[in-house]
From TrEMBL:
Record organism: Rhodobacter flavimaris
Bilayer-spanning residue ranges: 103-126, 146-169, 221-245, 257-278, 290-312, 318-339
Name recorded for this polypeptide: Tricarballylate utilization 4Fe-4S protein TcuB
Database matches in InterPro entries: Citrate_utilization_prot_B, NarG-like_sf
Keyword terms, alphabetized: Membrane, Transmembrane, Transmembrane helix
Amino acid sequence: MSLDLSPPILSATEDARRQIEICNACRYCEGFCSVFPAMTRQKAFADGDLTQLANLCHNCRGCYYACQYTAPHEFALNIPAALAEVRVESWERLARPQTIARLFQTHGVAMAGLLVVVLALFFWALSALRPEAGAGFYAYLTHNTLVAIFAPAFVLPLALIALSVRDYWREVGGGRVRLAHVLSAFDSAARMKNLSGGHGEGCNFEKGDRFSDRRRVYHQLMMYGFLLCFASTASATLLHYGLAFEAPYSLISVPKLLGVPGGLMMVVGSAGLGWLKLRADRSLGAARVWGGEMAFVLLLGAVALTGLTLYAATGSTLVKPLLAIHLSTVMVLFLLMPFSKMVHGFYRLAALIAEAGKPAPAGERA
């Protein structure tokens, strides 16, 4: 009888634990990003510790190109991919329901299919629920109808995300939250500090062992563009309900002064991120969710592009089809928030807050 001497097949969590323990013994990459100082606090890593480290990781990939233990070394370290797998698994496991999360994390086709269904429903609504009067796109759907459709589609996914982040906080052992921890986390997120790999020269996402700030710039364009669009919607809500100033709004108005630049930033950001994903090495990330991630990037760009196109087409016969397309992309974005990569912002911010509340590693204490 022959003996099987091949190494055991490890789960994503077990392999991440193996790799992190080797990294913790080496510590060559200690100053690269938030992951490496956090990992020096202990020698043994529970599943919750790995979940926290994985969500601290921004997949900048600098550690991979600096590592002397990557393949063909027998250790075969690939920390970016190992943590990416644990990170995606945590999003799927903590989501409600898990089956839907797994579907949309991995299948861009499912995302496109949902878009087609929602698009058909909006075309039906535009034909069946058209009001007798109204200006702009309110000539096709009233304000109250839009609120009735979109308020639940926005609030309920946020509630699901809140529940999953609560479970995440418990799993990683997050402590009492103080204002200083929140401010530190928001500062890091606003500057996207960890996309510089800890040295300020940029990350290695799309250029191998060469540094680039492109990924950080495109992420910032996307994030701040999205926040401007959200602020545009919030200001329009305030104008409508607080000041009885109803849409449509002119270009020289707060909603448009926020929304138009925000939309342009999102279009550029999504195009840039999509381009970088095509250039990047898929083996250094969670390859099984590549299609879902790319579809989500394209969805974000579609939300912004269709919104800008709809505004440019005001007064023309194109308003009705463009309105249906734009509303459909927004609805799909809302519905997928708990199940797509949209959740990464919530988890990463929670990870940064939890990290800010933990004691400094022994080597950094006074």
